[in-house]
Specification:
The complex is a heterodimer. Chain A is mainly alpha-helical. Chain A has 17 helices and three strands. Chain A folds into three domains: about 60 residues; about 130 residues, no CATH class; about 220 residues, MetI-like (MetI-like fold). Chain A has a three-stranded antiparallel β-sheet with strand order 2-1-3. Chain B has a two-stranded antiparallel sheet with strand order 1-2. The chains are: A mainly alpha, B mainly alpha.
Chain lengths: ~425, ~450
């Protein structure tokens, strides 16, 4: 044996040498490939990280609102006790500002002074007076929201070193704000307005509640329609459908619809629901219909895989004791498949919640101040609100946009976490 | 009765019908030894009665409401004074609108002429009559149905089979909705697109080199013609989608390979869900990110390097779109790479090849059809993506392949043409539907090809 091996040594050594020569190079290549792979994962996660950091760093300040303390004299000459609604509350606010800076005389300076506080200050004062009639004639201390430019300055988003002409706040206003800060007349509080108000042209008055309500109504319509219809379609295709041409067509259709761009559904909604059926524009009802058509394929596909996962032995057992097909499905298969179907539905709903493009087509981009109260009230949804604010030039809307994105992402995370939890919970039980 | 009250009545009748049917089934079998003598369980007799009570009535109800206003309006118009009745079509429509406004109690511009007031009263009268008639018809139908089924219920009535037939029919209807959605999309987009092609010839749309959909109000204005050549728009779409693919395919594929072949379990368990998060972020957020962070960064980088970059450059939109598609590519590639049989890997490794050689020479060629299918799906996604390009890409259709310039895409044009007020007889609005048709056809073709490729591949190894 040994001899035989010895005999073939020269040729084998040659091969070994060739292999060894190339080995280092090949190992280097291997390491390089591995580093590339690792880099790809890290790059993708890096993108995620940068995205989140940029949105949070831009948006966290929106949860605070700068307030200005004013000593407002509720002048009996200005307030007409019999006509509280007709009173010029803005004048009271202006007088209060002037009392802090009595040296402001000319018209332009007065205007810049008045611009320090939000126009909503007058409404707050009106509400206060309506509730506290006995205070009329006295001087009250009141915190009112600052204007968005002052807000930006306090939050450090306006660079003081830029020349006056390029900033939204002039030198005199800057001096006033600094003075107010030194007097302790400016503070930052939690921004309730952001969570309770509808849209507004004034950043300090704009909130997401209107959009949240719109999203809520739209999603309710979507859920109420898409879950039963999607579930029924999945049950039919998985349990009842005979193998024939019609079933094939349906299946191919569903797979294709899942990949149709969402904006095409918007075109469908515009042409069919608005133009043909004459439904109103900008309403959650139509938005929900369009999103139903869009999410149906997702829900049907998820529902079918949930039904597929139910073990065939259950079906056989059911049929063998004389249950009809419908009884079998309703009593035995559906209860087992339901968690999976619900998970798919939640994921479909999350998709619908984040969808913007088809809703632009059916007019849910209107500027709507009122909080929608029903399925046929004009409204907008959270992603569209983000789109609208992202287009606004004011710096203050930038942080509102980021904050609205944070709220949207929190909703999405809750929905996805619910889906994961549901899946885990039922996996354990079975 | 108002429609709501009518529905409520129908609801009550249906529930009553259910209990009547159920108790009748108990009654007919009591002589023969209780419910055992029945063909079906009592609940099915009740359900059958309820179905007969509710379904036909509901069908009549919805049809009635669908046609009611048109029919009544026709009757009202027929009764109008002659000088109004023979007005030209568009003037008549105005009158009809006025009547409708008066009926709805809206504020009407100008004074209400007595003829219109009379017509509105007429309309209201008709409406009232129709309401009463409908209420009577529907209540009668429901009661007759209950009575009819009540008389038919015998122990041998196969109630369960009938109920199950109805349920199955319902299921079929739900499943067929997918087909009707497709038909709806094709029909609606096609219809408007054909109206567009009557104004602008197809060849001018498909091969024209200029896109500026502005139509002037007066014919004599400068530039009033409007140009509808889709080539610049399509090329812009391709450019941005191409950039997106340049980002997404290498990164997504390498990430999938690393996670499938190299990474240990802990790393995979952490990295995979994080990548999924990237897929779950709404596109409007990516659009904001592109416009706020990426576009200025690219512009500044260009300034430093000394060449001018548009602030709406194709590069920014493309890169961010690529980021969005990374998880899509990686999860699809992950599936196909995992589906390659382990025996192929073992064979290559046992011959002495390194892991990377195994992957490059054995695993990837075996997985190639699946990966190609996945990439095609990703391309169709990139082409149909809307919000990123609406927020970060330009509006003007430049015929250029330079990624630092602003280009526009099909979806951007659809959105800009259709957001806001539309008039459905101008070429500008209809052009959006022609673009939509184009988009639908392109993505559909890509999807079909991708699905065929993927399916062929799956059959190969399973």
């Amino acid at each position: 044996m040994n001899n035989l091996n010895e005999a073939s040594v020269p040729g084998r050594d040659k091969t070994k040498d060739i292999v060894k020569k190339g080995l280092n190079k090949r190992y280097r290549k291997e390491r390089r490939f591995r580093v590339f792979g690792c880099a790809a994962v890290i790059i993708s996660l890096g993108f995620l990280f940068v995205l989140f950091i940029s949105i949070i760093s831009n948006g966290y300040t929106a949860f605070q609102q700068t307030m200005v303390r004013l000593d407002v004299y509720l002048d009996t000459d200005v307030i007409d006790k019999d006509d509280l609604a007709g009173t010029n509350y803005a004048k009271l606010i202006h007088d209060a500002l002037l009392s802090v800076y009595p040296d402001v005389i000319n018209y332009n300076d007065k205007r810049s002074l008045y611009e320090l506080v939000s126009t909503s200050a007058a409404y707050r004062l009106r509400d206060f007076v309506a509730k506290n009639r006995h205070e009329i004639g006295t001087t009250i201390q009141m915190w009112v929201p600052a204007d968005d430019d002052v807000d930006m300055l306090i939050k450090g988003h306006i660079d003081r070193d830029t020349p006056q002409s390029q900033r939204r706040i002039n030198d005199r206003q800057l001096a006033w704000v600094d003075h107010l800060v030194s007097q302790g007349q400016i503070k930052k509080v939690f921004n309730m307005t952001f969570f309770t108000a509808g849209d507004s042209r004034e950043p300090e008055l704009a909130g997401i509640w209107g959009a949240v309500c719109g999203s809520f109504y739209t999603l309710i319509v979507t859920l109420v329609l898409s879950f039963p219809i999607g579930g029924a379609a999945a049950v039919y295709l998985e349990e009842f459908a005979p193998k024939n041409r019609w079933t094939d067509i349906i299946e191919v259709n569903i797979n294709n619809l899942a990949a149709v761009p969402s904006i095409v559904y918007g075109l469908l909604g515009l042409a069919v629901f608005l133009n043909f059926f004459g439904l109103p524009r900008s309403v959650p009802l139509v938005g929900g219909l369009v999103l139903t058509l869009m999410t149906l394929p997702t829900i049907i596909i998820a529902g079918r895989s949930a039904l597929k996962a139910v073990s065939p032995s259950i079906r056989e057992a059911g049929l063998s004791i004389g249950a009809s097909k419908v009884q079998l499905v309703v009593h035995h298969v559906l209860p087992q498949a339901l968690p999976g179907m619900l998970t798919g539905t939640i994921i479909g709903m999350a998709q619908a919640l984040g969808e913007t493009a088809p809703l632009l087509m059916i007019g849910m981009v209107a500027f709507i101040v009122d909080i929608p109260a029903g399925f046929t009230d004009p409204s907008t949804v959270l992603p569209v609100q983000i789109y609208l604010w992202a287009d606004s030039p004011e710096r203050a809307f930038l942080e509102k946009t980021s904050a609205a994105i944070m709220v949207l992402l929190v909703f999405l995370m809750i929905m996805n976490a619910a889906a994961v939890f549901l899946r885990k919970f039922f996996e354990k039980r079975q | 009765m108002a429609p709501f009250h009518l529905l409520l009545t129908l609801c009550v009748l249906t529930i009553t019908g259910f209990f009547i049917g159920r108790s009748k089934s108990f009654a007919v079998c009591s002589a023969q030894g209780g419910p055992r003598a029945l063909h079906s369980r009592p609940i099915y007799y009740g359900t059958l009665t309820a179905i007969w009570c509710a379904v036909p009535a509901l069908i009549v109800f919805s049809f009635w409401h669908f046609f009611q206003s048109t029919i009544i309006m026709d009757l009202v118009i027929a009764d109008l004074p002659d000088q109004i009745r023979f007005l030209p079509e568009d003037r008549l429509n105005l009158v009809v609108n006025d009547i409708k406004n008066v009926v709805a109690g809206n504020i009407v511009a100008g004074n209400i002429s007595p003829a219109i007031q009379a017509a509105a009263d007429h309309y209201k009268n008709f409406e009232k009559t129709a309401q009463v008639a409908l209420s009577v018809i529907i209540t009668a139908m429901a009661i007759i149905a209950i009575a009819g089924v009540y008389l038919k219920i015998t122990p041998t009535l196969r109630a369960r089979n009938y109920v199950e037939k109805v349920i199955e029919g319902l299921l079929i209807a739900c499943a067929s909705l997918a087909v009707f959605t497709t038909i709806g999309i094709v029909a609606s987009v096609f219809y408007e697109a054909i109206r567009f092609f009557k104004i602008v010839p197809v060849y001018k749309f498909l091969f024209g080199l200029q896109w500026s959909p502005q139509m002037a109000i007066h014919a004599e204005q400068i530039g009033s013609s409007g140009a509808f050549g889709a080539i610049p728009v399509i090329l812009g779409t391709m450019l941005i989608a191409g950039i997106a693919m340049c980002v997404a395919v290498p990164v997504g594929l390498m990430a999938a390979i690393y996670l499938a072949e190299y990474a240990n379990k802990t790393f995979r368990n952490i990295a995979k869900p994080l990548l999924e998060i990237l897929a779950g972020i709404p596109t409007v957020v990516y659009g904001f990110f592109a416009a706020l962070v990426v576009a200025p960064a690219i512009r500044d980088a260009g300034d430093i390097l000394g060449f001018s970059v548009s602030s709406e450059s194709a590069l920014a939109a493309g890169v961010v779109m690529g980021i969005m598609i990374i998880p899509f590519v990686s999860s699809l590639s992950d599936d196909v790479i995992n589906a390659v049989p382990q025996s192929l890997r073992d064979g290559a490794l046992s011959l002495g090849s390194t892991r990377s050689e195994t992957i490059i020479n054995v695993v990837l060629p075996a997985a190639l059809p699946g990966i190609v299918g996945g990439v095609l799906l990703a391309v169709s996604r990139a082409i149909g993506e809307t919000m990123i390009v609406v927020m970060a890409a330009g509006l003007s259709a430049n015929l250029t392949a330079n990624p630092f310039q602003a280009v526009t895409t099909v979806t951007v044009q659809i959105v800009t043409l259709l957001v806001g007020d539309q008039e459905f007889d101008s070429a500008k609005t209809l052009a959006a539907f022609a673009l939509g048709l184009l988009l639908f056809v392109i993505t559909l073709a890509l999807n079909v090809v991708a699905l065929i490729v993927v399916r062929k591949y799956r059959e190969h190894y399973e």
